[in-house]
Write a structure and sequence with these properties.
By secondary structure, this protein is α+β, with helices and mostly antiparallel strands. 13% of the residues lie in helices and 25% in strands. The chain has helices spanning 134-159, 185-192, 226-229, 388-401, 440-443, 463-470, and strands at 196-202, 208-215, 221-224, 237-241, 247-256, 261-266, 290-295, 303-319, 326-334, 346-348, 354-362, 370-371, 383-387, 405-408, 422-423, 451-455, 458-459, 478-485, 488-495, 497-500.
């Protein structure tokens, strides 16, 4: 809003004259008669136009002003001959044309404009000071009022319209439009969730935790991690809760600490939905393949996350729930979110087949180490799963005998040296031989101090890598070892032996 004329004086309230008024020629600004001037302005009406009712406007006829009290009709106009009309307008009433506001509707459109610089009712005396912009201000005010009225009317009209005029688009609500195919993540999850259980393990001393498992066969066997059930293995309590909320007591069938694999079984399978998940082939997995992880992170059962295989054959060393027994795996690495409680749950491919058992995560807060749930760390996109090819073989051994079977070459290697290979120790633990006499390595010609750098085509950079790669095989398999002795490289064929049970 402009402030150009702010502070201008407001004329005093107009009052009708009380005495007789002259009917002679109009007075000039000085009060003298002006020769040749038109007759003087007639006296004003003795009343101001007022609104009398909803239908009346204070006039006898639409568009006409009432006669004056002496019976004379209203005059065509008032003015000062010779004055500049543009200079003679006041801020009280602008000059309206015949087509102005209210024309033909009983308003101001047909009335003659008020003139003169004095009282708007035409009283004699000194005229009010002239203000050049008064008419403009009044016109602006009227225009603003008219615009405001239009805006208000439009707002009222818009508010009264039906919601059907909205330009928003509503979804059809057709579930089929979401295209939940059986091979979609949603389709795979809906089929797999009833076969995934939340395991609660409680030791005899009250210690324990929560993990995940999945149905392995129709006899009620459940595949999971050793570190999930380790606390309840000796005199503890195990329960398995299905996605429908039904809880069943379970017992440990067998555990493999080195593989971090365990098999438990429902004590009573009556009414349990025993639908085994299909087992895929981890040997067919490629980097970039889609993955789906299902588990109970932090106890939140039935949680589904997705990602990809970000690496394979990743050597990982972790520990069980007590942190006393190391396990080794040549793991599938995934960026699917895995957190404490996901351990033992299935890692699935895009076809809904199990390709691994979620087992360990890398945490930014544990100094770069790898481990299980005891650290209570969170996902940073580096999760590791035991390849299902290995886990299936271990599970079969546990179900048959209750004990794990490990392939081995019969050597003891350093576990802390990394980067240059796995070096056979000079002396074994507790004064034992570092190369088992008449064992697979001894028969192949390996000696203490040799550094193994390859197993088949896989580079070996440390002791844990060598163990995890050997455990990918089964006893009786033949492998090629590349090693260094005295700065020279050699190769030899080794037939893997076996060890039964955990030491």
């Amino acid at each position: 809003m402009s402030t150009e004329n702010e502070g201008a004086a407001v004329p005093s309230e107009a009052r009708p004259p009380t005495g007789p008024q002259p009917d002679s020629a109009s007075a000039s600004a000085s009060g003298a008669r002006t020769p040749g001037a038109p007759p003087a302005a007639p006296p004003p009406p003795e009343f101001a136009p007022t609104v009398t009712s909803a239908a009346g406007h204070g006039f006898d006829e639409p568009g006409r002003m009432p006669p004056y009290s002496d019976g004379r009709p209203p005059q065509p106009g008032y003015g000062h001959p010779g004055d500049d009309p543009a200079e003679d307008r006041t801020s009280q009433f602008p000059t309206y044309s015949a087509a102005g506001p209210g024309a033909g509707a009983g308003g101001w459109g047909q009335q003659p404009p008020y003139g003169g610089g004095g009282d708007p009712w035409g009283t004699t005396g000194s005229p009010a000071p002239k203000r050049r912009n008064g008419g403009l201000i009044a016109a602006v005010l009227v225009a603003a009022l008219v615009a405001g009225g239009i805006g208000g009317g439009i707002g009222f009209w818009a508010a009264g319209q039906s919601d059907s005029d909205s330009t928003t688009v509503s979804a059809s609500g057709d579930p089929g439009a979401l295209n939940r195919k059986p091979t979609s993540v949603s389709g795979i999850a809906q089929k797999a969730l009833p076969s995934v259980v939340t395991i609660e393990a409680q030791g005899a001393g009250g210690d324990g935790g929560t993990g995940t498992g999945f149905i392995y066969d129709k006899q009620g066997h459940i595949l999971t991690n050793n570190h999930v059930v380790a606390s309840a293995a000796d005199g503890g309590k195990l329960t398995a809760t299905f996605s429908n909320g039904k809880k069943y007591d379970a017992e440990v069938v067998g555990r493999a600490q080195g593989y971090d694999v365990a098999v438990i079984k429902l004590k009573n399978t009556s009414g349990a939905p025993l639908n085994p998940l299909p087992l895929g082939k981890s040997s067919h997995v490629q980097v970039g393949d889609a993955t789906i992880a299902i588990g109970a992170p932090f106890g939140l059962s039935g949680t589904v996350t997705t990602g990809i295989i970000s690496a394979k054959d990743r050597p990982v060393a972790s520990s069980d729930g007590g942190g006393t027994s190391a396990s080794y795996m040549s793991a599938l690495q995934t960026d699917a979110s895995i957190n404490p409680g996901n351990s033992g749950g299935p890692l699935m491919d895009a076809a809904g087949n199990v390709i691994g058992i979620n087992s360990a995560i890398q945490s930014a807060g544990n100094g770069g180490g790898l481990g299980g749930e005891s650290q209570q760390s969170g996902s940073i996109g580096l999760g590791f799963a035991i390849p299902i090819d290995q886990a299936r073989r271990v599970a079969q051994d546990l179900i048959k005998t209750g004990k794990p079977v490990y392939p081995q070459i019969g050597v003891q290697v350093g576990m802390r040296d990394t980067g240059n290979g796995a070096t056979i120790a000079r002396t074994g633990n507790n004064g034992s031989e570092s190369v088992t006499p008449n064992g697979p390595a001894d028969k192949a010609g390996l000696k203490p101090g040799d550094t193994i750098t390859k197993l088949d085509d896989t580079v070996v950079d440390s002791g844990p890598t060598l163990i995890s790669e050997i455990w990918q095989h089964k006893p009786g398999d033949q492998v090629t070892l590349t090693y260094k002795r005295g700065g020279k490289e050699h190769t030899t064929q080794v037939t893997l032996g076996q060890r039964t049970g955990d030491k």
